[in-house]
Amino acid sequence: MKRLVTIVLALVFVAMAAGSTTFFLQTKAEYDQRLETERLTAERLRIAETRLREQEEMLQRLRTDPTYVELIIRRRLGYAKPNELVFRFEN
Asked: At what angle do helices 2-64 and 66-77 cross, to 10 degrees?
């Protein structure tokens, strides 16, 4: 009888250990996934902040630098001054 109780307790202990291990491994996998998601999100945020900074600098230059405004208009819209020849080359 004593031996049966010992075996049952050992089996319960093994089952609890297996359950705990399974739970731990699932939790660890979820944690690793969350860390990867956080890393990717932080990278996207860094890229977005860099782009925002660049756009803010461009906006500031557009507001304050007439030479820059002229350059942008010429490049993007193809404008030219009167009596000015513009050469366009295909890439």
From this structure: 100
Give the helix/strand (H/E) hosting 18: helix 2-64
Cα–Cα dist 20/28, whole Å: 12
Buried b (16+ CB within 10 A) or exposed e, 6-32: eeeeeeeeeeeeeeeeeeeeeeeeeee
For the chain (length 91 residues), average pLDDT per consecutive 10?
Answer: 90 93 96 98 98 97 95 88 83 74
Please tell me the predicted confidence (pLDDT) of residue 82.
Answer: 87
Are the C-beta atoms of 84 and 91 separated by less than 8 Å? no
Report d(CA 26, CA 20) in Å as an integer.
10
User: For residue 83, what is the DSSP state?
Assistant: T
